[in-house]
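Recap quiz, item 2
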Amino acid sequence: MGRKLLLEHIDVPGIETFEVYRQKGGYRSVEKALKSMSPDEVVEEVKKSGLRGRGGAGFPTGMKWSFLAKPEGVPRYLLCNADESEPGTFKDRYLMQYLPHLLIEGMIVSSFALGTNLSYIYIRGEYLFVLEILEKAIAEAYANGFLGKNILGTGYDLDLRVSPGGGAYICGEETALIESLEGKRGNPRIKPPFPAVKGLWGCPTVVNNVESLATVVPIINMGADEYVKIGTEQSRGTKLISACGNLERPGVYEIDLGLSVEEFIYGDDWCRGIKNGKQLKALVPGGSSVPILPTHLITKTANGDTRFMSYESLSDGGFASGSMLGSGGFIAFDEDQCIVRNTWNFTRFYAHESCGQCSPCREGTAWMEKVLWRIENGEGTMEDIALLEDINKKIEGNTICPLGDAAAWPVASAIRHFREEFEWHIKHPQEAMSRNYGLLKGATV
Amino acid sequence: MKVEIVNKERPVLSEKAKAEIQTVIGYYPEGKSKSAILRVLHIVEEEAGGWLSPDTMDMVAEILNITAIEVYEVATFYTMFNLHPVGKYVFEVCHTGPCMLVGSDNIIKYIEDKLNIKVGGTTSDGMFTLKTAECLGACGYGPMLQCGKFYHEHLTPEKVDELIEACRRDEVKIY
Ligand SMILES: Cc1cc2nc3c(=O)[nH]c(=O)nc-3n(C[C@H](O)[C@H](O)[C@H](O)COP(=O)(O)O)c2cc1C
C-alpha cells in the first residue's frame, strides 16, 4: 500500500465520530491555521503546495482562491462540490461516508483562508444517506467548538451546512451548482462574471471539490514544503482514484501521483489486474468525459515512454494519443466489452443529463445517441460514422458549459481509436447483434 | 414533462417533518428560503408516499413563500422526484457504463421478469416500481440499485430475490 495522507485512518473503528477522529489527531490543522497563521498565509501555503483541483479540471486551488474578490461589507461563500456524478467516480462519497470530519476540517481551514462565515456542502440528492452522516458530524463539530461563533476563542465565526441536489449531473458544473443552491433549475450561467466575482446570491464564491478541500488538511499539517516532495513537478501530492469496470479489485485507492499506470492496474497493492484473467482492451482513466485509450496507449505513451498516473502523463499526446486524469474515475474494459455499446451508453448519459439550455448540446447529444443506437443494433451505415464526427464538431466548443465537450470527447476518441469496431458493427449487423458481448440485447433502452 | 392533474388532498405533514422544514429553511440567510426547496421537496415527497402531486407542490410553494411555477420548474428538472404515483419500494437500477460493464442490463432484465413489469412500471399490488438511473456513484460495487435512501450493491439474481422477499416481509429500510 502506498502512503496515505487522506485515508490514513479510514479503517479505525469509530473514525466517523468526533471523539475518535480527534484522538487520531483530527482538527490539528484548524488549531494550527486559526491560532498561528493569517488567512493569507493559509492561501500562500496551499499555493505553494501545488494542489490542483480534484474535481476534474485540475485548476490550481491556491490560485483560484487568490482570485476571490473581497469587496467591503459583502459576504463571500465557499461551496464544496459533492455532486459527484461523473460516471466512474465514487471517491468523494467514500471520503464523506467514512471520514466526514476530514471534509469538515478541510472546510473550516479553507473557509478561514477565504474569509467566509457561511459555507455549504452541496451534495447530490442520491447521497441523502451521506448527508445524514455529514450532518451528524457537523453537529459534533459545533458541540466541540470547531464550528459556530468564536471558534477556539480566535474570534472567527463559521456556519457550515449541507444542501442536497435532486438528481442532475449538470449541477456538478460550478455555476449550475450555484443556481441549484439558489433553489432553481441547474442551468449553467454564462461566464464572465466568474463565481469568484459574482457567485451565490450575487456574492464572490469559491467552488471546490470534496477531495481538494480535504487535502488542505494534510497540506497545513505537514507544510507545503513537505507536501511538494510527493508526486511529480506538475502533479503534487496524493490522489484518490476510484477504480471500476472489469478489474480484479475495484475500489477507492489513494496513490502518490506519478505511480505508473501499469503498476496501478496490475500491482498487488492496487487493482490486481483484469478480472477472470482476461486482457485489458481499453481504459477511461478520468471519468466518462475524458478520451478513451486503446490497449497500446494505456501503459505506454505514443512515444513509448511509461505512462504515469499524473495530470501531465495521462494527457501526454493530447487528444490524439492521450487522455486526462480528470476526476480519477478509472474505468477498465476487458477484451469482451463492446466499445460501440459503451459509447452509446455514455452518450445516452449525456443526452439524459443535458440541461437543455444550448441547442448544440440538447439536440446533438440526442442525435448522437440515436445514431449510436442504430449502429449498435446493426442498422448503421458507413455514413453514420462521418455523421457522428460532424455532430461532434458542432457540439464541441459551442455551448455555455463544458458538458457539451464532455459529451463530444468520448465519442470522438472512441471513433479515433476503435473505428474498425464501428465499421465491423456496420458490416456485420447479424454478428454484432448476436455476439452481444455477454449482455442481453434490448433489456432496456 | 407530463404533470398529472389529480385532485389529491395535500399530505398532512407530521410534526417531525414540519420541524425539519423549519430547521432547514434556517440553514440559509434571511430572505433566501427558496434555497431550501430541494431539501423540502425531499422531505415532503417522503411524507406524501413517494411522489409529488401538483397539490403537494402548491403546498411547498406556500411553505417557502414562492410561486407554484417556481416549484414545478424545479420538481420537473431534477430526476429524483416522482411526478406520478409509485410503488412502496422503488428500485432504481444504475445502468450507466461502469455498471453496464459488470452486468446491470442482466439485473434489470431479471427484475423485469421476476416482477413481471417493465422499466417504469409498478406491480399491480402497488409494492414495487422499477426504474433505471444514471450513474449513482457506486461504480466499483455494481451492479447496484437504490431503494429509497439506501444503496444495495454487488447485486446478483440471488441477492435480488432476497431483497424482494425482505421487502415483502417489510424488513427493508427505505428512509
Ligand atoms: C458537466 C460538469 C459536471 C461536473 N461535475 C463535477 C462534480 O460532480 N464534482 C466536482 O467536484 N466537480 C465537477 N465539475 C467541475 C466543477 O465545475 C468545478 O470545476 C470543480 O468543482 C472545481 O473544484 P476543484 O477546483 O476543487 O476541482 C463538473 C464540471 C462539469 C462541466
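The longest strand of chain B covers residues 89-94.
The beta strands of chain B are 89-94, 128-133, 145-147, 150-152.
End of item.
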